[in-house]
UniProtKB/TrEMBL annotation:
GO terms for biological process: cytoplasmic translational termination. GO terms for cellular component: cytosol; Dom34-Hbs1 complex. Belongs to the TRAFAC class translation factor GTPase superfamily. Classic translation factor GTPase family. EF-Tu/EF-1A subfamily. Its main location: cytoplasm. This is Elongation factor 1 alpha-like protein. Component of the Dom34-Hbs1 complex, also named Pelota-HBS1L complex, composed of dom34 and hbs1. It catalyses: GTP + H2O = GDP + phosphate + H(+). Residues 43-267 form the Tr-type G domain. One of its GO terms (molecular function) is GTPase activity. It comes from Rhizophagus irregularis (strain DAOM 197198w). CDD domains: EF1_alpha (cd01883), HBS1-like_II (cd16267), HBS1_C_III (cd04093).
């Protein structure tokens, strides 16, 4: 997405008129930035998403790695082996570490985002195992929106890589989606090489086909690393046998993900959290409403007032869990649970934004966006209906105007008021939501909340950034 031209005017947030609640009970204020620095001096926290075509072996690969790291005890692993053998699916045992529901285990596919924690020498990871099946792409988008870095799992067996990479496969779509959502660092795990006798030729063939596409998708060559491995045998996950991978001298999967660089966090921006889930009841049995999500910008601590957009309802933070640990504060990049008091649960929806009372997020149903059109079958025209995705939010919308076609390299205008947008084009368009106004920010204000994706008929047709908000709602 580097080619997107971001020289746009700043847009100011409209202030809500509802008065805030009475001042929250006094808590001893914490210097969150100081505490954040102390925490990250030890190990940097990163959100890692694992994506790839259905049956590429994502859950088996990561489940086996977690087992080798000691995150699953021997007794539990033996139970998974027995239970999977009983239903004739013994190869699924490691996948069951992440695929927890009965339906996922029976069907042998991941249907929703599975979340697990693990650590390397220098990093603390929140692992997001995303579904590969095309029916669950919206779930995958919701999970990938929380990610800082990614592993793309490739099935190297004959015909299977081609099925995932070519017609209607999810390999291309997943790679485009994670890049569109801001992921810049990618490890490509070329899996199941044991099935093709650890063929170096097959490994190189896949890289030759995949590398130009990933480069075109916006991944820099030095930010993409290819690792040969087997999720089933465990080869080259934590260590490798010299007699199996004689031709490979690079890092193991574990060594490579330990080298992921932390992204720049928006600590100095106003607080923003996109709601991915919520429920009645508080952390550790306290009352209230609990909200789950990733902090996209700013910092918070117990006792702070927050604002729900849309709706304009206020809540007071009574409890926090950051990265699965009880905490008195949290900061940009943290995946959190937050218990709020004084809030009506009916005002919350998945995709709502919790934000700073003094700097609310704009609410709108009409935006100007700069998009890159993917490999579509039918050109995009004025009046084209789409589903707009922004993290866990998805809303029906219409492309109301094709404003310009842009040069993909320079961002300069090539054509004004085009009749249609062909595949692989870059353009500015006006988009109107058809159901309700929702919170949006421009990419210039907040890179995380300013990214969107457009889908139609079960396929992702475009991705881009919001460059202006064309009308405001209260």
């Amino acid at each position: 997405m580097e080619a997107l031209n971001l020289n746009v005017e700043n847009t100011s947030s409209k202030k809500v008129t509802k008065l805030p609640p009475k001042i929250s009970p006094k808590h001893k204020r914490i210097n969150v930035l100081e505490e954040y620095k102390k925490r990250n001096d030890n190990k940097v926290a990163l959100n890692l998403v694992v994506v790839g075509h259905v049956d590429a072996g994502k859950s088996t690969l990561m489940g086996h790695l977690l087992y080798l790291l000691g995150e699953v005890n021997e007794k539990t692993m033996k139970k998974y082996e027995r239970d999977s053998s009983k239903i004739g699916k013994s190869s699924f045992a490691y996948a069951w570490i992440l695929d927890e529901t009965g339906e996922e285990r029976a069907r042998g596919i991941t249907m929703d985002i599975a979340i697990t924690k693990f650590e390397t020498e220098h990093r603390r990871f929140t692992l997001l195992d995303a579904p590969g099946h095309r029916d669950f792409i919206p779930n995958m988008i919701s999970g990938a929106a929380q990610a800082d870095v990614a592993i793309l799992v490739i099935d190297s067996t004959t015909g299977e890589f081609e099925a995932g990479f070519e017609a209607n496969g999810q390999t291309k779509e997943h790679a485009l989606l994670v890049r569109s959502l801001g992921v810049q660092q990618l490890v490509v795990a070329i899996n199941k090489l044991d099935v093709v006798s650890w063929s170096q030729d097959r490994f190189n063939e896949i890289i030759t086909k995949l590398s130009p596409f990933l480069n075109q998708a916006g991944f820099k060559k030095d930010k993409v690393i290819y690792i040969p491995c087997s999720g089933l045998t465990g080869e080259n996950l934590l260590k490798r046998s010299q007699n199996i991978l004689e031709w490979y001298s690079g890092p193991t999967l574990f060594q490579q993900i330990d080298k992921f660089e932390p992204p720049i966090r928006l600590l100095d921006k106003p607080f923003r959290l996109s709601v991915s889930d919520f429920f009645k009841g508080g952390i550790s049995g306290m009352g209230g409403i609990t909200v789950a999500g990733k902090i996209e910008a700013g910092t918070i601590q117990i006792g702070d007032d927050v604002l729900v957009i849309p709706g304009g309802e206020y809540g007071v933070i009574k409890g926090l869990e950051a990265n699965d640990e009880s905490s008195k504060w949290a900061a940009a990049g943290d995946s959190i649970l937050m218990t709020l008091s004084g809030l009506d649960i009916l005002q919350l929806k998945v995709g709502s934004i919790l934000c700073s009372v003094s700097h609310p997020v704009p609410v709108t149903s009409y935006i100007l966006a700069q998009i890159v059109v993917f490999d579509i079958k039918v050109p995009i025209t004025k009046g084209f209906p789409v589903i707009l995705h922004r993290q866990s939010l998805n809303e029906p919308a219409i492309i109301t105007k094709l404003v310009t076609i842009l040069d993909k390299s320079t961002g300069e205008i090539v054509k004004k008021n085009p009749r249609c947008l062909p595949k692989a084009s870059s353009a500015t368009v006006e988009i109107k939501l058809t159901n309700r106004p929702v919170p949006f920010e421009t990419y210039k204000e907040n890179k995380e909340l300013g990214r969107i994706m457009l889908r139609k008929g079960g396929e992702t047709i475009a991705a881009g950034i919001i460059i202006n908000i064309l009308s405001y709602n209260s």
